[in-house]
Amino acid sequence: MPRVTVTVDGITYQEEVEPRLLLVHLLRERLGKTGTPVGCDTSNCGACTVMLDGKSVKSCSVLAVQADGSDVVTIEGLGANGSMHPMQRAFHEEHALQCGYCTPGMVMAAIDLLRDTPEPSEEAIRQGLEGNLCRCTGYCNIVRAVRRGAQEMGQAVKSS
Amino acid sequence: MTEVGRPRKRKEDARLLTGRTQWTDNLRQPGMLHVAFLRSPMAHARITRVDVSGARGLPGVVAAFGGQDLAGEQGSLPCAWPVTEDVIIPDHPPMAVSEVRYVGEAVACVVATDRYLAADALEAIEVDYEPLPAVIDLAEALAEGSPKVHEEGNKAYSMKITTGDIDAAFQDAPVVIDRTYVQQRLIGAAMEPRAVVATTDGDSFTLWSSTQIPHVLRVMLALTTGIPEHKLRVIAPDVGGGFGTKLQVTAEEVLCLLLTRRLGKPIKWNESRSEGNLTVHQGRGQIQHIRLAAEADGRIRGLQVDLLADMGAYLVLLTPGIPLLGATMFNAIYKMDAYEFGCTGVFTTKMPTDAYRGAGRPEATFGIERIMDELAAELNVDPLEVRRRNWIKHEEFPYTTISGLTYDSGNYEAATEKALSLFGYDKLRAEQSDRRDRGDPVQLGIGVSTFTEMCGLAPSKLLGAARFAAGGWEHGSVRMLPTGKVEVITGTSPHGQGHVTAWSQIVADALGVPFEDVAVVHGDTAISHKGLDTYGSRSLVVGGVAVLQACEKVREKARRLAAHALECSPEDLDFAEGAFTVRGTDSRRTIQELAFAAFTAHDLPDGVEPSLDSDATFDPDNYSFPHGTHLCAAEVDTETGLVKIRSYVAVDDIGKVVNPMIVEGQVHGGIAQGIAQALFEEAVYDAEGNLLTSTLADYLVPSAADLPDFTTDRTETPATSNPLGAKGVGEAGTIASTPAVVNAIVDALRPYGVQDITMPCTPERIWRAVEGARP
């Protein structure tokens, strides 16, 4: 079986994997990183979104072997020093989650969106999150949260 | 400042935001095995052979079974709502034995050491089917000579309720509107697919499930599997949305229990999304024939409703009762002289239907709110004016409706006035008129929905009268811990609604303790030993009230302790901000001090037991009746059929509000789901009974890009049926928004002669309607 080396949330793992093993199942089943959930089997919902070498991917659409040598950040590794990432805080402040199942993927996708568009309009946020489904919130508060997260991240960059 | 009414940020969030979740699929047990189910590719067929031997012996495979192997012990999945004396409730084995009746029905399973290996081995199972004809169309299913879904026939039940003289109402009526509307089948699509873990120690069983109803599930599983109730613990850990779809006793839950009993090992099942689209019960599925008789001025004389309700292949937990939840709701907020409601439940070879957000009330609200717009169009008056002429006026409450419910409170005028001003109604009407005059290819439509609904799924006595198998009470217990913190155990089972936060607010006020000092425990039958769970917008109006009443008992016990400690009469004590003070003095005891005194029990008054705790069970004497006015402005491109919702205003009256932030979130999500029915979603079966929308690529759950922002506000007319004055909010948005959107689209296209668009109102359907209506 192929051997992969992958760094997840700052820890480097070496695993022997079947070539067909999905990255999300490597994370969940082998590494115990259950913070990243699975919501569909056609890469429509985005619940499993993680950062792969700094860019968001749907981890159900990536094979574990494709992640060999890569750096993965999941929702569990997003905060620093025990505090939440500004986007996580913004989701809390704006009540942008209810059941919370889509939330890990939504937060990751939102952060990735801001890489390209640091100050997105409402329309840009809505279009940018098109690949992530939420069934609870109707998205209004998610849009508000991304806006707030963007402001706080902008401030964080400026003040650092 | 009181906690109730504050937009408290949720206690639930931190865990969910950082991935420290307990979804059922996250659970691991030592030696745990995985089960995968082989599912029927045929909508209707006789099973002539199942051979699982090819799967046995494959890598990692522990066992493989067909339905025949489990036939002796699997029992029949329960239906808990025998709506009429002669309703046909067919045998429903969790795993099909001799016949399959919908695509996706389980026919065999493999238990293996790994989920991939279990799925692999399914391919080695051989099943021979002898095809039988599919039964898809409801009217055809009832026709003479139709193929039968079950030997007993395709009619599950038929019932009719008439109040007033319906014939007289229609005879010589100046206006009669006659319409047929279709409520398409919907897939709930909670973001968390279902999952089950079952374990046994050889004597007792524990079942974790992604369910809304751990308590109901335990009772029903005990009744159907023969596992004694006291040896079965059911746990709903973190549950990722439900919307009614997890209000079910599922084949997979039963089968996982049977497999753990047989194999003595923990068994896990997790559902793929495409498996879920096939096998999670679906919502709606009605053909509504509605006739309305009115005076020339628009006052309603009578309403006649005749439903064909798609049951699907079997009656699952509440299937036959769902359309009947609309029986008292078609008349809605309107006064009339006569009303007739008829419903025929029809078996088809499709996935069974059951509760989906609103459950019977969205269907009814859609029917009446659509036909009210047709009445307005017929009379050429404003749709709100025709509603005003018919609705119950605020000074007329309490009001007993034609269908026999007593609405305790409401103010339709106030909600409508507020919505109108937020919406800018007159300005939008002027723009509409202008676009019509200009022949603008993009027309503007304004949709109105002045809805009400009934919440609680209580009182028990009314549920009993409706032949519902369970009651509608709810339980809460509240214990002051020795250190002064508070632990609340609720019988409700949240899956996104924020009960932990809202119940903490209620308790903080009632006991005068800090919000942060309250913990709320739920969803485990071993801890929360009484409850009826979460559905029907019942949790706050029944369960939240039970918690409040338990607090009141705790407070009264604390009063006796305080009187004893302060050597006064209990009547001489004032309670404020968590402390009892002897009136006119500064002698006081905090409730935390009293909790510790009750714990040590060194010096208790006679007849008072140690510990400062209590519990309460609440069963209201009426439903609650949220209402509101939703207004939708939609731009409809007559050349492409595309609909763009330009603005959406919702003013809801849900009585007293515990947490306005959570309430707004519930309304947002509800509106989104209602819009989804109007514009995007449908579970489509072809003529052979194949589900054509089995993935999220085909079944169009809207994304952020598909939906507008919503403007929400409230009016507040307290409910009188519970001491919180709350009415429930979980389903209101979904109930109200579907007709608002479709009314807007039809309003835009009215000049083209369009009277209806069948949902979902896709660009193609709209384009065809416009083209079809062109001269």
TrEMBL record, chain A:
Alphabetized Gene3D superfamilies for the sequence: 3.10.20.30, [2Fe-2S]-binding domain
GO molecular function, one term: oxidoreductase activity
A Pfam family matched in the record: Fer2
Top-rank taxon: Bacteria
SUPFAM superfamilies: 2Fe-2S ferredoxin-like, CO dehydrogenase ISP C-domain like
Occurrences of domain 2Fe-2S ferredoxin-type (ranges): 2-78
Membrane-spanning ranges: none
Known pathway: Alkaloid degradation; nicotine degradation
Keywords: 2Fe-2S, Iron, Iron-sulfur, Metal-binding, Oxidoreductase
Keyword Transferase: no
PANTHER family xrefs: OXIDOREDUCTASE WITH IRON-SULFUR SUBUNIT (PTHR44379)
Protein name: Carbon-monoxide dehydrogenase small subunit
Taxonomic source organism: Nonomuraea glycinis
Lineage, uppermost ranks: Bacteria, Bacillati, Actinomycetota, Actinomycetes, Streptosporangiales
UniProtKB/TrEMBL annotation, chain B:
UniProt KW Oxidoreductase keyword: yes
Gene Ontology MF: a single term: oxidoreductase activity
Aldehyde oxidase/xanthine dehydrogenase a/b hammerhead domain residues: 18-133
Gene3D superfamilies per the UniProt record, alphabetical: Aldehyde oxidase/xanthine dehydrogenase, a/b hammerhead, Aldehyde oxidase/xanthine dehydrogenase, molybdopterin binding domain
Keywords from the named record: Molybdenum, Oxidoreductase
SMART domains: Ald_Xan_dh_C
Claim: Oxidoreductase is one of the keywords in the record: yes
InterPro entries in the cross-refs: Ald_Oxase/Xan_DH_a/b, Ald_Oxase/Xan_DH_a/b_sf, Ald_Oxase/xanthine_DH-like, AldOxase/xan_DH_MoCoBD1, AldOxase/xan_DH_MoCoBD2, AldOxase/xan_DH_Mopterin-bd_sf
Annotated protein name in UniProt: Carbon-monoxide dehydrogenase large subunit
Organism: Nonomuraea glycinis
